[in-house]
Every structure is written in structure tokens, then in C-alpha cells.
Amino acid sequence: MEQAQERDGTGTPDAPGPRAGGDGRSGTALELLVHGVGGTTPADMLDDPRTVRVTGDDIAAVFRRSEDADAESRPEDYRGRPVPEAYVWCNLTSGNGTRALWLLLLPFMVVNLAHWMRPTAEGRTRTVRLYGLLVRLTGLTLTVLLVAAACEVALDLVAWQCAGTHACAERHSWLGFLSPVMSDGGWWSAPGRRLALAAAVPAALTGLLWYLSLRTWRAYESQQPIDRADGPEEDPARNALSRPGFWYGRRLVARLRAAHTAAALLTVAAAVGAPAARFDRRAGGSVPLDTLGRILTAALAAGAVAVVAVVCRRGRSEGRLDRALDERLVRRLPLAALLLFVGALLYGGWARPGWTSAGRLPGDMTFGGLALAQGLLVIALAVVAHLLHRSLPDARAAIRGLGGPAVAMLACALGGVMSGGVSQRVSDWLDGTGTSLDGPPVLLTWQASVIPPLLVVVLLMCAVLARHTWRRVRTERAAVEDDHAGEPGDPGRTRRIAFARATAGLTDRAPLLVAITSAATLLLGAGALVGAMTTDRAPADAARGTHAAVHGAAQTAQALGSWLIGLGFILFVTWGRRAYKDASARRTIGILWDVGTFWPRAAHPFAPPCYAERAVPDLTWRMATWTRATGGRLVISGHSQGSVLAASAAWQLEPSARRRVALLTYGSPLERLYGRWFPAHFGPAALGSLHEEVDCWRNLYRRTDPIGGPMRLPGDSGPAVDRAPLQDPLTYGRTELHPLPAPILGHSDYQADPAFAEERRRLLARLRPEVPAPRHTGRPESVPAADDGPGSC
């Protein structure tokens, strides 16, 4: 494909210049198509194999048909029809198989989602800031947890326990040079030096996370939205998505990256230095080394306080396009942590006669403290979310405004599964007999043991949902028969349609499943923490001497949980790799992944990058330059996730440009998913304001669609946006137009419905320059009285 146009020297996309019109404006109309999850090709979107790239690059670009490349120079040819364009953004979220490694960052992505699930609030600025602060602190604990798990594997299990045990080191000959017995007391066999060498693993993990965050930060957060700082128009839209700096979180991500990198390095430094400091504090220890150990401990504590202080600073600056960076903080904080890390390596690697490795490193306090901190943060977050929701109740909000705390709890659970899974698998691999090593900390064993009861709760919930769905199928069968009364009956056809409708409704039950799972996770996790701290033994050992049934249940839960947590981690990695190689697997998890990476990184800098920070400015630039250069109107047509991008881009326009835009959404999750889970940004008030600001908005959906749904706007505007549910399938039986059975389309192929062409034709007819724009007051155009008022499309 050719590239028809390039960006000019100022970084502004070259809009095709008008060639007609006495005022220099052609008034040509534009139809901008935005695809959804899974992506497609420009040829499929434009229904023409000959396409050219108008603007953009190999990652995201706008395409036209070849015959429309110079449409602006021939405005008379487009008086009765618009110029179709396709925005293709699928390469922002899919690509080569290496991007599957992003799934390893899933806990970070999920906790970042919790930040944006804040309930709608009005006049509670401090409470809103407290909500964001609690989520950022929860994200910080996840970073420390992941690095602590890497330290547990490399330092404790490998360097301390296995290398210090003759039987384990003999089975793994590659550890021979670290073993005091097999290496005859070689230089690396000293416990401190073994730990210092093993620290390279978590340090490398920290470096990898830092590098990935920095690289994606330069590629995504550096994409600047339109700068409306110089004399912006008064914007009546209150939604935060209309703020100039919403899609430009460069400063916050850089600051959080510095803090989390420093926290990870301090965690590794503490894992190396703490055992040596503990040995030096014993009676008869070296006074100089003891003094150095105390100084190092104090410095690490001061570094931890500095990291928490940086995270606690005010978060995003959305009211303006903030191009400044905290250069000193971004550079000096990780550098200071790196120097402390090197100091801990030198201190821990100093020769200490008589120091031997026995038992396990004291990691129970670390993991126990992290679990306690996460539980308290989630509880505090739930209290704050409840206060916000109570101030401005939203009946449609997921879990009554507690969606953010519930998802934050799931993020902590995912972090625990990943840390516990890798620790348990490595322990089992090193200790083939299960008798030579003490294994991972007791708390991780307790956490693995509560997984089977948690799965029982989830399976019971699934059984309840299955029963509800079966009942719903019977209800829908009667509804399908009523919809097609008078036509020859087909029980099999009726059952399939009813089943599609019933299963599509399961999406609306997701909040209940998340709420129960999160509550069970919190309670079982608290029980595991109490059991580990009070008994200091594994569940099976703690239950020894009790009733035989209790002991057997504890043994079963411990063994089954150990295998499940390891198996879950392996399947997680395997499915992640397959998701970016297999198109069907990509479509299966695509909606969840694209929802997760839609939002900017506001709570965790190591989360996968936000593709919307590229896509939304792209669409905004295109629409703004088009309306400014041609004086024409445009309709932006979005399917599925594309409708979310379209709405977000419309919010970013100046109010005057927004009034020249019409929206056509189909299969849209704007209200059904985003409105319920992210009420502060896509709730009824936000969607209602968008409807009032754009020229017109029409939404199409089906009862068989598990993702898209109606907008349910408040007041009288709702019916004007939502068309009645489209018929799916198009025909019940065989007809003259459809001699073969019509398929049940669900979420796909909305263009196949005649209603789509009808609604598209109505919207495009409004874009003609001679048609006055209705209902908006304060416009230069003449507004007929009959068309005045919201919802008149």
C-alpha cells in the first residue's frame, strides 16, 4: 500500500486541503470507520481491495479507497455521499508472539483497572484523591510481592537451601560451585556470596520491567493529544475524558516507574543484606560489620519511606497537557536505590567465618506483611468507594460501586498465585524427594491450600448461573415463538436462538460472580494468614493430631493446592503465548485484554501500555483537522471496542467541532461494560452529556450479543439513541431473500442487517451542508423549532 500523505514539520497530520467553495471550504462529508476487537483489514472495512494509506504508520493508520484518495479536490463528486475512511488500530494490541509476555504483567494491569473503577462522585475531591492513593499503594505492594517471589526462588530456594544441602546440590550439578561440600569451600560457597550472586536474577527481572516500561512509555505516553491550553472554549461536558491531559500521563508514569524500580531494587537489597545483618547482630559478632549492617538497614528504611512518599504524591494532571518531567526524581531515586543495592551486595558478600546456611530464610514475615497490607488496603478502598457511591448513587454501577475494590482484590490474588506458583514449582523441582529442603515460606503453602475451597465456591457459582441460564432458555423459547408467531415452527431453531439470547445475558451476571469471588478470596486469604502466623507450620502439619477427617482434608487441600497453583501458572503462560499465535484464542480473550489496556497507566507503571493513548489522539487529530480544513461534518462509526474509542475521541474535540460529529455505534459495550464498571467516566451522566454535545447518536444492538447493548440514557434521550433490538437471525425460516438458513450473528457482522444501512443512511443525510443541525442552541445555523430538544436525530 502507498502512503498518500505524511505529517508536516510541526507534527500535525496533513489534512487534505479543500479545492472548492467561496470561503475555501468544500463542505464535504466524511465517514470514519473504527473496527473493534480482533482487528480487520482496510479492504474489508472499505469493501474494496484497492486501498491507500492517507496518514499514519505501520502500527495505526487511516485508509481510503484508491478512487477516494483525492476526494477533496473533487467535492462535486461527493455532494450526495460521504468520503469513507477506515482507522485500523489492531497492531496496537496484537503483533508477534513476544507480546504474550505482557500477560505476565496481568496483576499490574488488573490493579490499574481498579483505579478507573471509581464510583461517580460530586464535590468530594479529597475522597477521590484518597481512592487513587490507595490503589497506587496496592500496586506498589504487587511490585514488591513479585520481586520478593523472585528473591524467594533465587536466593532462598536455590542459593540458600539447595546449594547449602549436599543431597540437593548433588542432584543439580550446576550448583556444585556454590556448595560448601562439593566445591571444598570454594570462594562462592560462602552464604553471603551465594546470595549476592543469586541476586542477579531478581535484579535482572527489575531491569526487564524497567526497560519494558521505559520503551512502551516512549512509544505510547509520548503521543501528544491536541493542545487546547491556548484559549480553549468553555466545555459544558463535565466528563474527565474531555480534559486536555487525560490521554497524556507521561509525567505520572515516569514518576511511578522511578518509584517502583527503586522499590524493587530495595527489596532485592534487603533480601541480600538482611541475613548478613542478622548474623552480625549475634553475640560475639563483628562490631564493624554490625555497624555497617545497621547503617545499611537504616538507609534501606529511608529509601522505602522515600518510595512511599513519591507514590503518595498527587496523581494525574488531567486539566492541562503537562509536558514537564520530574527529571531529578526520575533519575536520582532509582540511582540511589541501585547504589544501596550494590552496597548490600558488598556487605553481604564479605567473608564471615562460621556462617552456614540452615533452614529457610525468614521470608514469612515479608510475605505475611505484604498479605496483611494488601488486605487492609482493599478494605480501606472498599470503605472509600462506598462513601463515594453513597454520595451519588448509581443503580447500574457494578457491585454498588465496589467494583474497584473487588478487582483490586483479584489483582492481589493473581499476584499471590503467580508468586506462590513459581515458588512451589521450583521447590518441587529442586527437592525431588521432598525431604531435603524446607521449601517455600509457610504462608505460601497456606495460600495454596485455600485454592481448592475457593474453586469450590466458584464452581457452585457457575452451577447457579448455569441453572439460571437454563431457566432463561425456557423463557426465551416462549419469546422467540411469540416473535415468529404464524411461521412454521422449528423446535431446534427456536432452541438455538433462545440459547444464544440466554447466554448473552450472562455478561450482566459478571458483577455477582466477581463480588462473591473477591469476598471469598479476602476471607480465605485472611484465614491463611492467621493460620500461617499462629501455627508457623504447613496446614497438614498443623492438623496433625486432630481428627482424622480434618487431617486428611488438610493434606488433600495442601497437596491439591500445590499442584493447582503451579498448574495454573503454567497454563497461564501457555495460554498467553497461544493468544497471540492463534486468532481464535485471540478473539476469545480479546475483549478482556482490550478493556484492560484501554486505560492509561495511572496506578502501576509496569502494566501493559495503553493503546488508547495512541488511538484516541489519532482519531481526535483526524476529526479536528478535517472539520477545521473542510468545514464539513463527519460521522464516526464504531463497532465494539471501536465505539469506545470513537466516543473517547469525540469527548476530546472542542465543543464546536463536537457539534459537527455524529456517532453510529453497534455492538457497543459503552454502557453494558464500561458504564457499569467505570461509572465515573462512562456512567449515565457522562453518556448523557455526550449525547447532548454531538450532532446525533444512534446505537444498534442485538439480544444475542454478549458484549453490546443499549445505552439506557437518562431522561427522554435514551429512546432517541437506541434503536429497537435488531432481529437475530434475520429470518426465522427460509424465505425468498434467504433461501438458506440465516446464521445467528450475535456480536458480529452488524452491516448484514438492513437496519444498519437504514441508520447509516439517515446519519449521513444529516451531514449534507444544506441540512441544518438540530437542537443545539448557540449555533450559527438556523434551528427549526420542531427539531429542537435532545434526542432528535
Automatic annotation (TrEMBL):
The keyword Hydrolase does not apply. InterPro entries: AB_hydrolase_fold. The keyword Transmembrane helix applies. Residues 1-30, 767-793 are annotated as: Disordered. This is Integral membrane protein. It comes from Streptomyces ambofaciens. Keywords: Membrane, Transmembrane, Transmembrane helix. The chain crosses the membrane at residues 130-150, 195-214, 258-279, 291-312, 333-350, 370-389, 401-423, 443-466, 510-533, 553-576.
